[in-house]
Amino acid sequence: MKKLVILGAGTAGTMMLNKLHETLDRNEWQLTIVDQFETHYYQPGFLFIPFGIYNKKDVVKPKRDFFPKGAEVIVSEIDKIEPDQNRVLLKNNTVLNYDLLIIATGAKVKPEETEGMVSDLWHKNIFDFYTIEGATALANFFKYWEGGKLVLNITEMPIKCPVAPLEFVFLADSYFTERGIRDKVDIHFVTTLPGAFTKPKASSILGDILTKKNIHLTSDFNIARVDNENKKIVSWDEMEVPFDVLVTIPTNMGDDVIARSGMGDELQFVPTDKHTLRADNYDNIFVIGDATNLPSSKAGSVAHFEADILLENILSAIDGRELKAKFDGHANCYIESGFGKGILIDFNYDTEPLPGKFPLPGIGPFSLLEETKMNHYGKVMFRWMYWNLLLKGSELPIESHMSMAGKRA
Asked: Once rounded to an integer, what is the mean pLDDT over residues 251-264?
């Protein structure tokens, strides 16, 4: 019997497990998934925890709730991948041989990569919200905070969910307005990017929204260290931004197993063909989701679109055929903008976010690059779709390839 092993049971790995379980001949293929944790987190929900919209129980479920019956699940930390031997070594001393391997080990935040970040003020005046621990600690802090300088800093790119930092400052504006202390809170968005976002046209529009909401923008800021004693972040060219509370988007890196296996780039992401999703140097290894080095967004919608492409290419590889399915970098992101409104962007490798209606031309019901209540409802509805459809590998009413239908150039 041939063996297909999936490393990582997050969003991407779980989707692939469900899709392959339904597709592969179970008499010919043994399907195994490996992950060291039993708990699944709805990571887009972390954004809402600091503002009391969600709490921990809203974003946590057992991973096994989303695994198909009969799937082989191994709970263990992964020690090393030995691609030349077609095997994976686990920390529990198990050796897994494979014919095909899918790497879905994701990305993790590494605040310790920045000097002074994890120091005296960590989770006292310095927080992240990309972990459940950071998000809940920040929620407790905000409950009693009476105002001051709130600085959000993106350490470096790429990061998971590139729109989340913008959403955070938009929601902070709404939250402190509703608390009646917005005039006491100075919100500062500090980014390593040349503008508010990675795509120039969307960056201009989102930058205008920052200005409208009286949120200060500092671009091209490459942080070198955090000065805990004087409460300021310092760039490599000695620019300084003081803070009373710092919300950091730390360096994002691939899993340490990728480094131990000698398979990653300097940030431990696996070099991957951006269209076929096959690992650059290994014909029987595929990579999906945040573990890749693709120039696409590291977001749940991207992993969903990749999964459809990867399924086709896995089946082609099994049959010894050319990998004809091509991922186009499609990303679809709702941006929560506060006060019950949101923005929607839809783009890929070659096409920037454009205005228009989505998904039905002229009808919508969602509006692209516009701030509307319907877009907010789309963001809210996504959590139900995530738990009930997306993780289970179900088909969603959005094509894997980006469509130009309904968009205005």
From this structure: 98
